[in-house]
Amino acid sequence: MQIIIKTKGISLNQALRIFIEEKIGGLEKFGKAPIRAEIEIGRTTEHRRKGKVFRAEVQLVFPGEVLRAEAERKDLRLAIVEVEDELQEQIKKYKNKNFSKIKRNQRAGKKELKLSPSAKMPKKGRIIEEG
Question: What sign has the CA pseudo-torsion 109, 110, 116, 118?
Answer without folding.
Answer: positive
